[in-house]
Amino acid sequence: MESIVVHTKNSMELNALKAVLKDMNIEFEKFHTKNTFHNQKTIKKVIAKTNGRITRTQKPKGQ
Question: How far is CA 61 from the centre of its chain?
Answer without folding.
Answer: 40
